[in-house]
Amino acid sequence: MKIRIIGFVILPVLMMSLSGCGTDEKFLAVDKKGKTVVDRFGQLQVNGTKLCTEAGKPIQLRGMSSHGLQWAGKYANEDVIGWLRDDWNIQVWRAAMYLTQGGYIENPVIKEKVISSIEAALKLGIYVIVDWHVLSDKNPQVYQAKAIEFFTDIAQKYGSYPNIIYEICNEPNGKDVTWSGQIKPYAEALIGAIRSLDPDNLIIVGTPNWSQDVDVAARDPIKGEKNIMYTLHFYAGTHGEELRNKAEKALNLGLPIFVTEWGTSEATGGGGVYIDESKQWLTFLKKHQISWVNWSVTNKGEESGVLVYNADREGKGHWKETDLSESGRFIRKVLRNEIRIP
Ligand code: DCB
Q: Is the CB of 260 under 6 A from ligand 1?
């Protein structure tokens, strides 16, 4: 009797979970019938705190971010993004366009890397986050006019495609850069400009303190607009329980959250790989169905990067196990549903 139970019940279940047959189809970039994630989910919408498909089903999207496109723009092409879709099972790609440090303000041709990201995502049927990567420039209002000009152009060209997600300010930071004083007014101006051209694609708003103070935004959210989400960013080696509590507070107040960037490392992008801490975060994100994008596709040799130093210098994809860093091997397995996140 005992042997029978093992044979007929436990073994098939075990085999199914190993071969991935048990994997929920909603986590696949391309399903068994060959339908892409955008084919299946269509026009995204926000209901309460949840990101939902066009049909109204709550989902959790997962994917990868580029590193700063001024340095790692060689990966913003169909070969690499296609490899990430087919081998890593990404459903979303984020094009991180810095403003300073050699970014768009100083070097506007960087925009071409955003365009090539979008074009690849359209062909591949995945979602693409267009990230206006506010960072060392701190206050998003500094380049507000440029931001409006940039997103107006993107919305005009691509706003009719459901693939597009606008991220209007990566990480506002600095003591004098507050939600009500700078970030919210900036966001309202950007939302106004984008919505006059694109009535429905997702717009994601950064939050104070490097996109950690989601609770502050939750007490004073943007009113009268649909399909708005708010960014939470974390680095597993630096941020833990305290930041998760903040996120939970924001969710309880009804704030829809999208983690457009997180790393397995410390907040510097280096300093080690924190696998256990990353798993705790992934469990939290799964429980709340919070979509996430991992930082980042780079070969510069920092621990958060998914490639080892100097791997794939031309941006061709088709990475071998030896091209991947410790973080890269871990994130790939998570995305491929080969590591069980409880
Ligand atoms: C964020 C930024 C992102 C940054 C990563 C890791 O910054 F959105 O651009 O990426 O998190 O720090 C890093 C790259 C490095 C690069 C550096 C400067 O990985 O290769 O040299 O940007 O461009 C954060 C996040 C959190 C905090 C601070 C920063 N924090 N920050 O909690 O204090 O100062 O960049």
A: no
What's the gap in Å between 267 CA and the centre of ligand 1?
Answer: 6
- DSSP state, 246? H
Active site residue 171: yes
What length does the chain have?
342
**Which domains are assigned to the chain?**
12-335 (3.20.20.80)
Q: Checking phi first, is residue 108 left (phi over 0); if not, alpha (psi -120 to 50) or beta?
A: alpha
Whether the CB of 135 sits within 6 Å of ligand 1: yes
- Ligand 1 pocket test target in 134, 170, 235, 268 with most atoms within 8 Å of CB: 268
What digits encode the pLDDT tens for the residues 94-127?
999 999 999 999 999 999 999 999 999 999 999 9
Global confidence as pTM: 0.94
| CB 261 near ligand 1, within 6 Å | yes
Specify the DSSP class assigned to residue 68: -
Q: What is the pLDDT of residues 202-254, one digit of tens each?
A: 999 999 999 999 999 999 999 999 999 999 999 999 999 999 999 999 999 99
- pLDDT band at 23; cut points 50, 70, 90: confident
Query: Which among 149, 250, 216, 143 is positioned nearest to 186, based on CA atoms?
Result: 143
| Annotated catalytic residue, options 261, 266, 277, 303 | 261
- Answer yes or no: 261 catalytic: yes
